[in-house]
């Protein structure tokens, strides 16, 4: 259900953007960069996109889904690495700091949530020479 609501907002945002910049070329691909904490199920996100894109200019667009991890940065040992979360972890459950697995100091967590970017690829319009 979460993915459906998220995709509904994303698709509406894309449709609003297309209405502002009308083009005759169809959308071939949609690339979404989303935080891992907002995508509990990639399959559910893809299904929601497919269902919600029906009868819109996005209907035949290929969805490229890039899931961005939560990142851990330790100021003591300078490690920067993805921080493992499971599919049941929610953003409000994570503390902003964790124990670094290398030096056991306090490391900062960042990212892993929200829509990082939305990119559209349009079909090349054929010229009628």
TrEMBL record:
UniProt key word Zinc: yes
GO molecular function, one term: nickel cation binding
Domain of life: Bacteria
Entries under InterPro entries matching the protein: HypA/HybF
Residue spans crossing the bilayer: none
Sorted UniProt keywords: Metal-binding, Nickel, Zinc
Gene Ontology biological-process entries: protein maturation
Protein name (Swiss-Prot/TrEMBL): Hydrogenase maturation nickel metallochaperone HypA
Species this chain originates from: Desulfobacca acetoxidans
């Amino acid at each position: 259900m979460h993915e459906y609501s998220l995709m509904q907002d994303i698709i509406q945002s894309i449709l609003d953007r297309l209405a502002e910049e009308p083009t005759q070329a169809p959308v071939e691909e949609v690339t979404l960069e989303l935080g891992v904490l907002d995508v509990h199920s990639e399959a559910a996100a893809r299904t929601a996109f497919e269902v919600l894109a029906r009868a819109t200019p996005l209907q035949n667009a290929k969805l490229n889904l890039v899931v961005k991890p939560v990142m851990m940065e330790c100021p003591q040992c300078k490690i920067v690495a993805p921080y493992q979360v499971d599919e049941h972890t929610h953003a409000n459950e994570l503390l902003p700091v964790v124990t670094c697995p290398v030096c056991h100091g306090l490391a900062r967590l960042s990212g892993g949530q929200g829509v990082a970017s939305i990119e559209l690829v349009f079909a090349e319009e054929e010229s009628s020479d």
